[in-house]
């Protein structure tokens, strides 16, 4: 099961539904606080712990965790920013039998647990509070965020006030968009999701290891998937994309090109013509290295086949409505996204979904926080990928991997998610000094 992702409002609704179904709010908080304490115990080991509690339910989780850690033998200090205002948090505060210091006077500790604010944060922290929190987090050996680092906007991952770098973030019931959106994502450390007994039932989720089609013992090269690539003015990019498709398990990869291309594996077939009516084609790939050649994109769109449109091809689409009725996966980075969709409103998640609706296509909105959006509202958030993917040609590799997944028979949204997940893991396997060519070599090790 992939990890669900909910907005703050959806999270409140899921909690309300659990409460309607007979689970007391204090029980949810008890589960959350216990899970927080358990994660800290496993991750950080026994060290003096300072728990910072805010006025809402995030603070309530902190009082519960304090009780569990104290019972486990920890030296626990609790510092409160304000007395609890929420009912469940008042209850949790009442269950804590130790002293409570003032936040303003709290001094550092080896383990800090930040339970100031979670999904209820409505504005940035006051500057003195933000500054003190930053200092305590900075001095800690292990900094832990309860649900979210305080200062992060849950729904869009923006920082409403300055936050430090955390080692561990423990979330409850579902992840929040901020756990997988920049800049917040890069500050959270490991992200643990605890089950607190609610049913999130989400359309949004973290992309997980794909379920790849098994090899048919009676299969042949065409039944394993034929990817047809259309070359353009700069052949290097199509070499990366076609090679990636071949290494991702497509049974046959073909490149249409007017001039011979060097650097392709011998197994990739070059052809002067482009018979896109060929029944056996599983996916067409157009865009990498295409240049400004609109007829090539037009040609691809005449074929009744799944198409991956990447790079220059995206800029040539013109109007997203042109893609209606076609079976398309678009793979834009920020610049290409802006070229096709203009300036859309909202969080990156909302922009991705709006783009998918407008184009009636699956949109892979790339970046350090890649999203995969479908026109029907499904949204996949990539797990963190290494920053060393920011090197020329890695996008071409991704396009080829997605085309292979599509040709191998995965549905468009699943193919895009599979490609994104495998691409990230291949980058991890290739290591920090990789170039796009090394990424190709790493693909078979993650399939
Ligand atoms: N509601 C539930 O059933 C559960 C909630 N849980 C926890 O509860 C959290 C959400 O709780 P809340 O909705 O109470 O929200 P928070 O605890 O995030 O904080 C809300 C409170 O802070 C105030 N506030 C917001 N921004 C502020 C700022 N910048 N400066 C000062 N005050 C500010 C609000 O007016 C409100 O009083 C989750 O993140 C999670 O940790 C968990 O205990 C699981 C169960
Ligand atoms: N800082 C980063 N952290 C993780 N992944 C990144 C980062 N920057 C870029 N990427 C990934 O690297 C790839 C770059 O693709 P793209 O921008 O199309 O590059 P190119 O056109 O050179 O191939 C995308 O998959 C993107 O998600
Ligand atoms: K917090």
UniProtKB/TrEMBL annotation:
Its EC number is 4.2.1.136, 5.1.99.6. AMP binds at residues 366-370, 395. It catalyses: (6S)-NADPHX + ADP = AMP + phosphate + NADPH + H(+); (6R)-NADHX = (6S)-NADHX; (6R)-NADPHX = (6S)-NADPHX; (6S)-NADHX + ADP = AMP + phosphate + NADH + H(+). It comes from the Bacteria. Its cofactor is Mg(2+); K(+). The keyword Cell wall biogenesis/degradation does not apply. Residues 204-447 form the YjeF C-terminal domain. K(+) binds at residues 58, 114, 150. Binds 1 potassium ion per subunit. InterPro entries: Carbohydrate_kinase_pred_CS, CARKD, Nnr, Ribokinase-like, YjeF_N_dom, YjeF_N_dom_sf. (6S)-NADPHX binds at residues 57-61, 118-124, 147, 237, 289, 333, 396. Residues 11-204 form the YjeF N-terminal domain. Homotetramer. Catalyzes the epimerization of the S- and R-forms of NAD(P)HX, a damaged form of NAD(P)H that is a result of enzymatic or heat-dependent hydration. This is a prerequisite for the S-specific NAD(P)H-hydrate dehydratase to allow the repair of both epimers of NAD(P)HX. Bifunctional enzyme that catalyzes the epimerization of the S- and R-forms of NAD(P)HX and the dehydration of the S-form of NAD(P)HX at the expense of ADP, which is converted to AMP. This allows the repair of both epimers of NAD(P)HX, a damaged form of NAD(P)H that is a result of enzymatic or heat-dependent hydration. NCBIfam families: yjeF_cterm, yjeF_nterm. In the C-terminal section; belongs to the NnrD/CARKD family. Belongs to the NnrE/AIBP family. This is Bifunctional NAD(P)H-hydrate repair enzyme. It comes from Sphingomonas brevis.
């Amino acid at each position: 099961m992939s990890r669900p992702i909910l907005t703050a409002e959806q999270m409140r609704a899921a909690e309300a539904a659990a409460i309607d179904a007979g689970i007391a709010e204090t029980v949810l908080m008890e589960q959350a606080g216990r899970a927080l304490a358990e994660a800290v115990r496993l991750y950080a080991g026994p060290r003096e712990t300072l728990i910072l509690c805010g006025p809402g339910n995030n603070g309530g989780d902190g009082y519960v965790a304090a009780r569990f850690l104290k019972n486990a033998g920890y030296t626990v200090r609790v510092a409160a920013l304000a007395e609890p205002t929420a009912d469940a948090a008042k209850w949790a505060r009442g269950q804590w039998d130790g002293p409570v210091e003032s936040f303003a006077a709290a001094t550092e500790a080896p383990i800090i647990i930040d339970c100031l604010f979670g999904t209820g944060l409505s504005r940035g922290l006051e500057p003195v509070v933000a500054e003190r929190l930053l200092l305590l987090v900075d001095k800690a050996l292990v900094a832990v965020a309860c649900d979210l680092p305080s200062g992060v906007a849950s729904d869009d991952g923006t920082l409403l006030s300055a936050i430090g770098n955390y080692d561990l973030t423990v979330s409850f019931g579902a992840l929040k968009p901020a756990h997988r959106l920049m800049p917040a994502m890069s500050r959270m450390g490991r992200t643990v999701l605890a089950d607190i007994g609610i049913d999130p039932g989400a359309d949004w989720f973290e992309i997980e290891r794909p379920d790849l089609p098994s090899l048919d013992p009676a299969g042949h090269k065409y039944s394993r998937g034929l990817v047809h690539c259309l070359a353009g003015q700069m052949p290097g990019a199509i070499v990366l994309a076609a090679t990636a498709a071949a290494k991702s398990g497509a049974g046959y990869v073909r490149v249409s090109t007017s001039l011979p291309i060097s650097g392709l594996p011998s197994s990739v077939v070059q052809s002067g013509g482009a018979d896109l009516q060929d029944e056996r084609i599983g996916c067409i790939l157009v865009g990498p290295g295409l240049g400004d050649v609109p007829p090539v994109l037009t040609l691809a769109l005449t074929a009744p086949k799944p198409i991956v449109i990447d790079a220059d091809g995206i800029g040539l689409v013109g109007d997203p409505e042109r893609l209606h009725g076609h079976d398309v996966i678009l793979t834009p980075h920020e610049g290409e996204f802006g070229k096709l969709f203009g300036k859309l409103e909202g969080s990156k998640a909302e922009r991705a979904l709006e783009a998918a609706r407008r184009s009636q296509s699956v949109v892979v909105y790339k970046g350090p926080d890649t999203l995969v959006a479908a026109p029907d509202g499904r949204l996949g958030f990539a797990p963190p990928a290494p920053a060393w993917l920011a090197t020329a040609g890695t996008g071409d590799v991704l396009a080829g991997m997605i085309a292979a997944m599509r040709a191998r028979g995965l549905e468009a949204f699943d193919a895009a998610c599979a490609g994104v997940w495998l691409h990230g893991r291949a980058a991890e396997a290739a290591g920090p000094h990789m170039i796009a060519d090394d990424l190709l070599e790493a693909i078979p090790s993650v399939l």
